[in-house]
TrEMBL record:
<comment type="pathway">
    <text>Amine and polyamine biosynthesis; betaine biosynthesis via choline pathway [regulation].</text>
</comment>
<feature type="domain" description="HTH tetR-type">
    <location>
        <begin position="8"/>
        <end position="68"/>
    </location>
</feature>
<dbReference type="InterPro" id="IPR039538">
    <property type="entry name" value="BetI_C"/>
</dbReference>
<keyword id="KW-0238">DNA-binding</keyword>
<dbReference type="Pfam" id="PF13977">
    <property type="entry name" value="TetR_C_6"/>
</dbReference>
<dbReference type="Pfam" id="PF00440">
    <property type="entry name" value="TetR_N"/>
</dbReference>
<dbReference type="InterPro" id="IPR009057">
    <property type="entry name" value="Homeodomain-like_sf"/>
</dbReference>
<dbReference type="InterPro" id="IPR036271">
    <property type="entry name" value="Tet_transcr_reg_TetR-rel_C_sf"/>
</dbReference>
<comment type="function">
    <text>Repressor involved in choline regulation of the bet genes.</text>
</comment>
<keyword id="KW-0804">Transcription</keyword>
<feature type="DNA-binding region" description="H-T-H motif">
    <location>
        <begin position="31"/>
        <end position="50"/>
    </location>
</feature>
<keyword id="KW-0805">Transcription regulation</keyword>
<keyword id="KW-0678">Repressor</keyword>
<comment type="function">
    <text>Repressor involved in the biosynthesis of the osmoprotectant glycine betaine. It represses transcription of the choline transporter BetT and the genes of BetAB involved in the synthesis of glycine betaine.</text>
</comment>
<dbReference type="InterPro" id="IPR023772">
    <property type="entry name" value="DNA-bd_HTH_TetR-type_CS"/>
</dbReference>
<dbReference type="InterPro" id="IPR001647">
    <property type="entry name" value="HTH_TetR"/>
</dbReference>
<dbReference type="InterPro" id="IPR050109">
    <property type="entry name" value="HTH-type_TetR-like_transc_reg"/>
</dbReference>
Length: 209
């Protein structure tokens, strides 16, 4: 009989092994046996906990998204300004565990799978909407709503695009450089609004006043 508390540990080990196995293969062309071997358990145990490879894939994506959300919440918890919160979202998107080559490869494989799996597509749409919502929450405090929506789409597109570039292992872009590029884009887009805000707080004095 398995010890109490072993099931969550084994489920996590299998989901982590799924990311590694997919990342190493560069596709979803892995079997439950491949994943079980990577996790150090038997294929029978993998089937016992998840039933099928598809169920394991969905659970792995949910785990990845849950981890990303928890990291974002923790990173923004004690920040005061909208701009600081935006920077935290960008940093979390490119932090070491999310931007590791195997994780990036797994993300790309999940996007391919989303073209034929409605459940996977729905989960990735949730990720995209959550990222956009987090960005909008900060941007709408810094610029008008239409501009906030436009800038949020641009930042999200940069994050997704840099993930694709990272998958080109012959010339990967590191985490620090990716954060810097995205921050530069955000600064450029916000500059007109920050100048306007500064001018309204510190209007120039006219002669005679």
């Amino acid at each position: 009989m398995p010890r109490i508390g072993m099931e969550p540990l084994r489920r996590k080990a299998l989901m982590d092994a799924t990311l590694r196995a997919i990342g190493q293969h560069g596709s979803l062309d892995v079997t439950m046996s491949d994943i079980a071997r990577e996790a150090g358990v038997s294929p029978a145990l993998a089937h016992h906990y998840f039933g099928s490879k598809q169920q394991l894939l969905v659970a792995t994506i949910r785990s990845l998204l849950g981890r990303l959300r928890a990291d974002a919440v923790a990173a923004m918890e004690h920040l005061d300004t909208p701009r600081e919160r935006l920077s935290a979202i960008i940093r979390v998107s490119f932090q070491a565990d999310q931007f590791a080559p195997e994780t990036v490869a797994a993300w790309l494989a999940f996007y391919v799978e989303a073209q034929r799996s409605e459940e996977v597509r729905r989960l990735l749409v949730i990720y995209a909407r959550r990222l956009r919502s987090n960005l909008l929450h900060g941007l709408e405090r810094l610029c008008p709503p239409d501009d906030a929506a436009r800038i949020a789409e641009g930042v999200a597109a940069m994050i997704d695009g840099l993930y694709i570039r990272q998958s080109l292992r012959s010339a990967p872009i590191g985490s620090t450089a990716s954060v810097a590029l995205t921050e530069d884009y955000l600064d450029l887009q916000l500059r007109p609004f920050l100048k306007d805000a500064a001018a309204s707080v510190h209007p120039s004095s006219r002669p005679g006043e």
